[in-house]
Design brief:
Layout lengths: L1 E5 H10 L14 E5 L5 E11 L2 E10 L2 E6 L2 E3 L1 E8 L7 E5 L2 E3 L2 E5 L5 E8 L1 H8 L23 E4 L3 H11 L5 H25 L12 H16 L7 H8 L3 H12 L3 H18 L5 H7 L5 H12 L3 H9 L1
Parallel strand pairs: 1-5
Antiparallel strand pairs: 2-3, 3-4, 4-11, 5-10, 6-9, 7-8, 7-11, 8-12
Helix pairs in contact: 3-4, 5-6, 5-7, 6-7, 8-9
Length: 323
């Protein structure tokens, strides 16, 4: 069975859950503990504010059923997350997301044993300060992590390296308390960020030879692209899309970069803009109808994206076509 919730309903469950009255640490002013909602499973989430703009979350949980959360289109900070399943043979993964516009999507988490999650939220200004200051000083390979709230965010998935695993274990088993505790955790958070940047630059996500995929997987990726084009206004989640074409979600993400040179969301975003341009060119739909018809939840986001892609506001484009 799958439990499907809106983002608001999902967090309402945590708000309603009873906080642990005496957190098992000596740093109550800097962290909070919340038990996992009984409707979803058992475990806890531990939120730690390391400094303004930098927050660490550690969760240990076991779900009763698969959980699917319907996420709206939304501005997004920098974030990275490691998922460490406890089951024998289970594969650990990481996700890295830059700042920018996150898509309307369905996020899934699956039952099947205990898991540990380490997640870090990082405000862009703090990241800029850490990386070196002014935008022109930021290496080109890292700039995709710093996009405006109107641009689709950068995303990357992979498997933790041995160095990442070691730092994660050090973070999860911090031996210190008080000020040393906070400084130690923050150092590990930045060390993980450095290792992710190293991995990002060593293995860029640009176009790669699709020959690295089996021919049948390339066919599945092309089919996934066609499914997205058919459902621009209500696209399937990554999990649904992967299941529809017969591959796992990790291979779907990697395969999209190899075949199309972009992420699944990047491809969807481009196809939405192309289709909206075609719709407006007919002169038979309004700007609002074109935006809604291709799945943009916000007319403002649509107008900004259309202008970046085609160099003109959609309303001005309609007027030009009418003349």
């Amino acid at each position: 069975m799958t439990i499907t919730l809106s983002q608001a309903d999902y967090w309402d469950l945590f708000e309603a859950a009873e906080p642990i009255p005496t957190p098992p640490s000596s740093n109550p002013a800097e962290e909070s503990w919340v038990v996992y909602p009984k409707r979803l499973g058992q475990g806890y989430q531990r939120w730690i504010s390391l400094r303004p703009g930098l927050e660490l979350m550690v969760a240990e949980y076991e779900l009763l059923d698969d959980v699917q959360v319907l996420m709206p289109e939304r501005p997004h900070p920098l974030e990275y997350m490691f998922e460490l399943p406890a089951g024998k043979g289970a594969k650990s993964t990481y996700g890295l997301w830059g700042s920018g516009l996150a898509p309307q999507e369905q996020w899934g988490s699956f039952a099947g044993g205990a898991s540990v999650m380490v997640s870090v939220h990082l405000e862009p200004d703090l990241f800029r300060e850490w990386i070196g200051g002014a935008a022109q000083a930021i290496p080109a390979a890292v700039q995709p992590l710093l996009r405006s709230q109107h641009q689709p965010y950068y995303e990357r998935t992979g498997e933790p390296t041995a160095a990442m695993r070691m730092v994660l274990q050090q973070l999860l088993h911090c031996p210190y308390q008080g000020l040393t505790w906070r400084l130690y955790l923050e150092s590990k958070v930045w060390e993980l960020m450095a290792l992710l940047l190293e991995d990002m630059q060593a293995q860029p996500t640009g176009p790669r030879a699709s020959s690295r995929l089996r021919s049948e997987d390339v066919e599945r990726i092309h089919y996934a692209g066609k499914l997205l084009v058919r459902r621009l206004d209500n696209p399937p989640s990554l999990i649904e899309l992967a299941r529809a074409v017969g591959i796992n979600d990790h291979k779907l993400k990697v395969g999209f970069r190899q075949v199309y040179g972009t992420t699944v969301f990047g491809y969807l975003h481009e196809q939405r803009l192309v289709r909206s341009h075609q719709l407006l060119a007919t002169g038979e739909v309004s700007v609002a109808e074109a935006a809604q018809g291709v799945g943009f939840a916000s007319r403002g986001h649509f107008a900004a994206a259309f202008r970046r892609r085609f160099g003109v506001n959609p309303s001005a484009y309609v007027r030009q076509r009418a003349n």
